[in-house]
Design brief:
6-stranded parallel sheet; 3-stranded mixed sheet; 12 helices; binds nicotinamide-adenine-dinucleotide
Amino acid sequence: MKVGFIGLGNMGAPMAANLARAGHEVVGHDIAAPCPGGVAPAASAAAAAAGAAVVLTMLPDGAILARVAAEVIPTMAPGAVLLDCSTVDVAAARTVAGLAAAAGLGFVDAPVSGGVGGARAGTLTFMAGGSAEDFARVGPLLAAMGRRAVHCGAAGAGQAAKICNNMILGATMIVTCEAIALADRLGLDRQRLYDVVSTSSGQSWSMTAYCPAPGVGPESPADHGYRPGFAAELMLKDLRLAQAAAAAADADTPVGALALDLYRRFVEEEDGRGKDFSAMLPRLAARRRGG
Ligand code: NAD
């Protein structure tokens, strides 16, 4: 398939390389990053999009997606599909879907889970929104970049699934870290707490697959000085998107709002920037009640 790939950063570059490796003809464009091996460079986003059956975007946020979409939609071939794999706000995804439809193009929002490691290994999970027909058309590309693709519903449903998942993750990580910090103060050994919780009703991915305590559970960023992994500022971005969506949809999400406030303080006012999001544990363990 002929693919235009726009946004060749930490995630986009290995994803584009996997598409090329699978035999697709990939033309790439980024305002700063170079094209990875196997991907032909184009001078502009519009040039990368011209004649492509699918134009894939992997960009920082919804405002940039809107700008790039305005640039590529007029040059895309009739019947082509715009496939956005960035994490953006639900409203931006729906707006771009409307612009694509008005131009006779398909649109799929397919944000990813799995991080840079998953992008390199081709093991990402995609959560997709769009028509069944458009989802089927991008299927071979998703299969070349990931292990699993879930069709969640109409345009925007992929972004909705992503922010709901990450709101659970952010809040669960915080309370897991709180529980470990409380166990410390109670004189309860972290390994013993893990042994109980990982097989009890407090069990979660944050505890059992990504334990924030160094030396406990499977290997995780905690075992490498909290080098990300999944950076605290990326969690902050996703929690902001969740709260924006909750406000727009009039949904009551008090714990999500509190998780956002804690990660905002951690990243913007404390020393969380550049650390894994599980570094909430040393932050909380160092503080006293109400601090
Ligand atoms: P990144 O900042 O490394 O890459 C974004 C790229 O977009 C950059 O290379 C930048 O130069 C390029 N870009 C910006 N504006 C552009 C424009 N107008 N035209 C062309 N290129 C432009 O970010 P990333 O880590 O690759 O993340 C990309 C998206 O994936 C984000 O939405 C992020 O939230 C999401 N995501 C990231 C991770 C992760 O672990 N890094 C995990 C899941 C989802």
